Amino acid sequence: MLSEPLESLPSGYEITSLFSPRSIAVVGVSQERKNAGQGMLLSLLKFGYKGALYAVGLHGGQISGIEIYRSILDISGPVDYVICCIPADATLKFMKDCVRKGVGAVHIFASGFSESGNAKGRRLERKLVDIARSGGVRVLGPNCLGIFSPREGMTFYDTTAPFLIRSGAVGFFCQSGGNTRELIETGTVRGIHFSKGVSYGNGSDLSESDFLQFFARDEETKVIGGYIEGVKNGRNFFETLQGIASIKPTIIFKGGQTRAGKLAAATHTGSLSGTAHIWEVVCRQSGAMLVNDLDEMMDLMLVFSYLGREKTGRKVGIVSVSGGRSVQCADIWEKEGFSIPHFPLEVQRELHLFTPEVGTSTRNPLDAYVVFWDASLFSRALKVLSEYRGIDYLIIDVSIILSLTGIQGGGAESLRAQIEAIVHLSEQGFKRLIVVLPFEGVLDTMKLGFELEQRLIGAGIPVYPTMLRAASALKRFVGYCENGSS
Amino acid sequence: MLSEPLESLPSGYEITSLFSPRSIAVVGVSQERKNAGQGMLLSLLKFGYKGALYAVGLHGGQISGIEIYRSILDISGPVDYVICCIPADATLKFMKDCVRKGVGAVHIFASGFSESGNAKGRRLERKLVDIARSGGVRVLGPNCLGIFSPREGMTFYDTTAPFLIRSGAVGFFCQSGGNTRELIETGTVRGIHFSKGVSYGNGSDLSESDFLQFFARDEETKVIGGYIEGVKNGRNFFETLQGIASIKPTIIFKGGQTRAGKLAAATHTGSLSGTAHIWEVVCRQSGAMLVNDLDEMMDLMLVFSYLGREKTGRKVGIVSVSGGRSVQCADIWEKEGFSIPHFPLEVQRELHLFTPEVGTSTRNPLDAYVVFWDASLFSRALKVLSEYRGIDYLIIDVSIILSLTGIQGGGAESLRAQIEAIVHLSEQGFKRLIVVLPFEGVLDTMKLGFELEQRLIGAGIPVYPTMLRAASALKRFVGYCENGSS
To answer: Quick check: B2 pLDDT over 80?
Structure first.
């Protein structure tokens, strides 16, 4: 079923080597100075790149046991992929060397090309691509960070969260290096695991359509995200999107939607942005999901990574820790198009076997403060609700602040027990579960929040920082599942 | 100027004693058991309540050196305010004692009244109020937490952030106890300081109109926030709001806007919620600001607490750490109705004296990665922009993640120096400043983020977790200042 629409797409075979090169040469490496090349090389070593790794730098020397060649032509083995960290002015001459060397693809880190907005920069970029193409070399960039691939040990930076990074099912292409790093850092902490990602900057040669096609074919990738400032060939991209978005969930964040944003995009990646309206229409028609910022993109990546798409619906049961939050939850979910059906009397009666009449609402939301500080009651309540067939999802609203500061609250231990009860429910096979866990606060609150969030994520349960973001994400998810071809 | 519109309002004098009682009796205190009464009493002691503090409990005894009387009638001195933590069933008899004792007001903590949805609860609440009123006693609640007043040392719980709590200019009335605690906890961490606050639950006697009038007159309170599920006397409340909202910024968060939300509100505080549309109209007409959640309420409280209202406008200058973020920032601010004017050539020239041509945009947003890891350059850039008269606000986008993981980034020390440069700018008198500082991430990122945020707040600079929330808040702020009477 997957093969048919993809057969009609232009081939993207060259890119495969981009994401799994057998050898990498980092160019512009200084032995002494902490420059970009040195940073790239050391990051690759640390991240565990397993292929042949070479360093090239004007002044030679060696670093971390790796010899620094003075020219790429001095490397005797084949070079699949080059990470080029030399200034823009020097790239033309270097690209000629790459052609002579017969490398597969060159990632150009430097800026100073078409995004600079002057004729010189545009000319330089055109020449660079001309030289590369004439010699059969593909160009990634310029003005970008390059490839991220945990499985291959490919990276362009030292993450703050190395202990959380593992290979996963989310692929992305991102025109901004900053957004790429934010996506990886924040996404990883939230439990989004990436197959491959690419920061592609000006997209002078390889660009959004190529990556989209690659991710469509890549078996490791189940969800695709793209941050785009402007497309090089609109028709090609939109046709590609049309063929892909209904097969693999594809999330598009379009930068440069306003006059000011467009101008900023022009100076950032030399992109002509197109109108916001066109993007809305294209995404609606193709089934791609257009989002407004990186957070929303991650919210969708999360729900598509964690929830099964076989059985969905718009009826939610809500468990909340306070009356005020219950009211807000109900408002939010209904506004997002969900129904919050009253639990039938037999369910309510079962809940009332262990919750007091006073201070408890068993209708839906279940607002039973008492169960929040008694994990065995909480567990029992979850069991009752998970067995009720009248809801499609169970939404659990955990408030660290309310639990910690409650007059009768049990504090951190009680919260941990609550989280274990949720994990237990999931382990018993109930997977239609979303937890909302805000953890703004003082350091201890954040620390506890981080611990609880990681525990839930580790057990395969998606966690959202606000009720609104959970509801918006589930709304898009259910909408996609209902209309998508899968 | 303040006095005229307020003269026409019904008097709210009784409530003054509610927020600054000379004596408090906590009723329902156990010597042994950690019950609500004991919690309330100990919290008051810890928070430093300075007036006469009495404890009352069926079994007598003593706690923390305070004698537990068996009846409120055993207390010899006058009692201004009672915090009553006994079960609903026992409150009628107790209220009669309060009348005999001649107390000023009684806060009823217990639930089990009209919010229970049955005739018994409604009858109980009516009787309670009848007894109180006939004896000249005011009732706060039932089904609520009561009064919070840092200046008086009044509280109902142990905050997780005692070291951050100080008295300020924001007053609130809140129908939900949970929302009250969230507002205090999260608000305090964000640098919102409260004058007085009240959680008033079912609002059987004292309710939203009384509190609104109180805050309008209270000199300590400069900004008012209210979370309301339903009003007891709509006309009265709306007329009060009409007279107040244009004088003091008044932020209203309405719970129970949807069918599901209304039902939840009915079981939470026994409230009839009214339609969402009515609230929109009433707020628009009165000049009150209607918000959708607590975060938005705090975002507005923050901007009204920190920015001067004398000179506003819709032209922003933006300093951002990455090109991708610059594009998003520009999009966001323009969508919110601001303009991001290009800096004139002489400003750009001045910036280019110390920023490279390549990899920098000096137009607006200023996207100059280089200045973000050299505090002296950063400081110089801020000075140039703050001296340019063509912008009303300077928005500084600080990304911890991008600074920590940047290949050429300087890490935590560089970030701290950046923040000091911003603080310095503010200390030099430039106050039209907003910092956006997201700090999701691993523990170290959050820790650093918390430190930087508190440093900025301490210097009187408002900080927002996302660009969108900053822009939305400033939009409402500028709109209010333009239309408000002040």
So the answer is: no
- What's the burial of A36, exposed, middle or buried (CB within 10 Å: 0-12/13-18/19+)? buried
Total domain count for chain A? 3
Task: Give the integer Cα–Cα distance in Å for A154 and B394.
Answer: 38
Give the CATH number of the domain where residue B79 resides: 3.40.50.720
d(CA B295, CA B291): 9
| Residues on chain A touching B257 (C-beta within 8 angstroms) | 331, 335
Q: A146 has which bridge partners?
A: A199
Asked, for residue B91, whether it belongs to a domain, the answer is yes
Distance CA B39, CA B61 (A): 16
User: What is the reported pLDDT for B331?
Assistant: 95
Which of A17, A296, A42 lies closest to A179, judged by CA? Answer: A296
Residues of A in contact with B229 (CB under 8 A): 327
End-to-end CA distance of chain A: 9
Chain B neighbors of A160, CB-CB under 8 A: 401, 404-405, 441-442, 444-445
Record the tokens describing residue B483, joined without a space.
Answer: 């239309």
- pLDDT digit string, tens, across residues B206-229: 999 999 999 999 999 999 999 999
* Contacting residues for A440 by C-beta, under 8 A, at least 6 apart: A446, B186, B189, B190, B465
Sheet arrangement for strand A360-361? A360-361, A366-368, A316-320, A393-397, A433-436, A463-464
CB under 8 Å to B48, separation ≥6 — which residues? B153
Do A174 and A258 belong to one domain? yes
**B441 → closest Cβ in A40, A185, A258:** A185
Residue B323 has its nearest CB partner, among A176, A293, A408, at A176
| CA pseudo-torsion sign B401, B405, B406, B410 | positive
In tens, the pLDDT along B151-191 reads 999 999 888 888 899 999 999 999 999 999 999 999 999 99
**Domain holding A360: CATH number?**
3.40.50.261
Report the residue from A259, A325, A335 with minimal CB separation from B258: A335
3-class secondary-structure state, position A66: strand
Give chain A positions within 8 Å (CB) of B116: 357-358
Domain that holds residue A241: 149-306
The single-letter DSSP state of residue A363 is S
Contact flag B160-A267 (C-beta cutoff 8 Å)? no
Closest by Cα among B361, B436, B352 to B402: B436
Residues B167 and B288 in one domain: yes
Name the residue among A181, A331, A361 with its Cβ closest to that of B405. A181
End-to-end CA distance of chain B: 9
Does A431 lie in the same domain as A335?
Answer: yes
Q: Which of A153, A122, A211, A134 is nearest to A24 (CA)?
A: A153
Question: Residue B396 and residue B424: Cα distance in Å, rounded?
Answer: 14
Q: Predicted confidence band at B409 (pLDDT cuts at 50, 70, 90)?
A: low
**What is the chain B residue with the closest CA to A443?**
B447
State the nearest Cα–Cα gap between A435 and chain B, in angstroms.
17
Is A311 within a domain?
no
Question: Which tens digit of pLDDT belongs to each residue from A249-304?
Answer: 999 999 998 888 888 888 888 777 777 788 999 999 999 999 999 999 999 999 99
CA distance to A396, B72, B109, B452, per residue, from B67 (Å): 42, 12, 21, 45
This model of the complex carries an ipTM of: 0.92
